[in-house]
Design brief:
single chain
C-alpha cells in the first residue's frame, strides 16, 4: 500500500479540510435541539424541530447550485482552487449563524438570516463534495483507490463527530439554559475560525496530475456537455445518491432526534450513543474501501442496497421501543456497517465514471440533486410522518428509496476495471 510522500501529504491536507467543512455543516443538526426555540419560539418540540429541519433542507436545495458553480470552477481552474473557495464560503455561513440575534430580538428577520446562512453553507457543501471526491480519487494510487478515497467519508464522519464532541463539551460545561440561550453559538464561532485556517492551508495544496495533464484545448465543463455526453451516468449517479443520501442522513443525523423524540432518551444520552456509533462507523470506512479494492465496487454497493432493504424496518421498530443505551448502540451499528459498504467508495465510483475535463461537475451536480431531494428532506419527512401519527411509514419510505438505488447499482459498470481516472 505504498504511496509517495507528496500524495500522502495532499490526501491528508485535503481530508483535513473536508473534516472542517462537514463539522460546520453538522453543527447545525447537532445543536438544533437547543437553538430551535431561539428562532421558532412557538409550538411543541416536534413543531420547533420541523422549523429547523425545514431550514436544514433549504441548505440542501442550494447544493445543486453550488455543485454546478463550483464543479465547473474546479474543472476549469483546478481542484485545489475549488476546495479553497468552498471552505471560504463555509466560514462566512458559520459566522453568520454564530452572530445572528434571535427571534425575541429581531423578530422574523432571525429565521430569514438563518436561512441565508444555510443557503451559503449549502453552496459551499455542494461544491465541496465534488471537488474533494475528485481530488482524493485522483490523488490515490490506482490499486488502492478504494482505501485512500474512503478517507473522504472518514473525515466527513469525523466532522460530524467533532460537532457531536463539541456538543458534549458544551453540555458538560454549561447548563441547559445557558446552552439554549447562548452557548450553542460558540460551536459556530469555533467552526468559522477553523474554516479560515483551512482556507489558508488549502491554498498550498498540490494540484492533481489528472487536472494538470489535460490539454489546453480540452472540452469545456458545462451542464449541457455533461448531459449530452454522459446522460446514463448522470441519471445513475443521481439515483444512487438519492438512496445513499437518504439512508446516510437517516442513520447518522436524524437518529439522534429519533432517540430523543421517539425512544425517549435524554438528549445527552442520545448524543453519547450516536457519538460511539459514529466512531465505529468512521473506523469501518477504510476497511470497506480495502474490500472494494479486492473484490470490486459493485459487490460492496449491492451489500449496502440489499442489506439496507432487509434491515431498515426491523431496526427502526426495535429502536422505537429500546430503553437501554447499549442495546440502542448495538442496533444502530447494523445499518451503519451496511452503509459503510456504500459511503467508503461512493465518491470514487462516481469519479471513475467521468473523464477529467468534466469530472468534478459530473460527480457533484447529479449527486447534489439526489442528495437535495432525498437526503436533505429525510429529517423533515420523518418528522412529518411522526407528527401525522404514522411514524412507521417513514421506515418503509427509506426502504423504497433503497430499492430504487439497488436497481441503479445493478446497472453500474464495475468501475474497478473501467475507471476513467487514467493516471497511476
Amino acid at each position: 500500500m505504498a504511496i509517495d510522500a507528496k500524495r500522502l501529504k495532499s490526501i491528508v491536507g485535503g481530508s483535513a479540510g473536508n473534516l472542517v467543512e462537514w463539522y460546520d455543516w453538522y453543527a447545525y443538526s447537532s445543536l438544533s435541539l437547543y437553538f430551535a426555540a431561539t428562532f421558532f419560539p412557538k409550538g411543541n418540540l416536534t413543531a420547533q424541530l420541523m422549523g429547523t429541519g425545514a431550514i436544514f433542507a433549504v441548505g440542501f436545495v442550494m447544493r445543486p447550485i453550488g455543485a454546478y458553480w463550483m464543479g465547473r470552477y474546479a474543472d476549469t481552474h483546478g481542484r485545489k482552487a475549488g476546495l479553497a473557495l468552498s471552505v471560504g464560503l463555509m466560514c462566512l455561513g458559520s459566522l453568520m449563524i454564530a452572530l445572528v440575534p434571535g427571534y425575541a430580538v429581531i423578530g422574523v428577520a432571525a429565521p430569514i438570516i438563518l436561512v441565508l446562512a444555510r443557503m451559503i453553507q449549502g453552496l459551499s457543501v455542494g461544491g465541496e463534495y465534488g471537488a474533494s471526491a475528485t481530488y482524493l480519487s485522483e490523488m490515490a494510487t490506482r490499486d488502492r483507490r478504494g482505501f485512500w478515497s474512503s478517507f473522504q467519508y472518514v473525515t466527513l464522519i469525523g466532522g460530524q463527530l467533532t460537532a457531536l464532541a463539541v456538543t458534549l463539551l458544551l453540555q458538560a460545561w454549561l447548563s441547559k439554559t445557558e446552552l439554549s440561550s447562548w452557548g450553542w453559538r460558540l460551536a459556530f464561532a469555533f467552526g468559522a475560525v477553523l474554516a479560515l485556517i483551512v482556507y489558508v492551508l488549502r491554498r498550498r495544496l498540490a494540484e492533481t496530475a489528472s487536472f494538470e495533464n489535460q490539454s489546453a484545448d480540452r472540452p469545456k465543463s458545462s451542464l449541457a456537455a455533461l448531459w449530452k455526453a454522459h446522460p446514463r451516468e448522470f441519471l445513475l449517479v443521481m439515483i444512487i445518491s438519492a438512496g445513499g443520501s437518504c439512508t446516510f442522513y437517516t442513520y447518522t443525523t436524524y437518529l439522534q432526534k429519533f432517540l430523543v423524540n421517539t425512544s425517549g432518551f435524554e438528549i445527552q444520552t442520545a448524543t453519547q450513543v450516536m457519538t460511539a456509533a459514529l466512531i465505529v462507523y468512521m473506523i469501518a470506512q477504510p476497511v470497506f474501501g480495502m474490500l472494494a479494492d479486492t473484490f470490486g465496487r459493485r459487490p460492496m454497493l449491492l451489500l449496502f442496497g440489499i442489506g439496507g432493504m432487509i434491515v431498515t424496518v426491523p431496526v427502526f421498530s426495535a429502536l422505537a421501543v429500546a430503553h437501554d443505551p447499549l442495546v440502542a448502540f448495538a442496533i444502530i451499528l447494523v445499518p451503519l456497517m451496511l452503509l459503510s459498504a456504500y459511503t467508503s467508495i461512493s465518491a470514487l465510483v462516481k469519479a471513475e465514471l467521468f473523464p477529467a475535463h468534466i469530472r468534478a461537475l459530473g460527480v457533484a451536480f447529479p449527486y447534489a440533486i439526489g442528495n437535495a431531494a432525498f437526503g436533505g428532506t429525510a429529517e423533515y419527512v420523518a418528522l412529518w410522518f411522526k407528527n401525522a401519527s404514522i411514524e412507521a411509514a417513514f421506515y418503509w419510505y427509506v426502504t423504497a428509496i433503497l430499492a430504487c438505488a439497488t436497481i441503479a447499482f445493478l446497472m453500474l459498470p464495475e468501475t474497478k476495471r473501467t475507471s476513467l481516472i487514467l493516471e497511476d
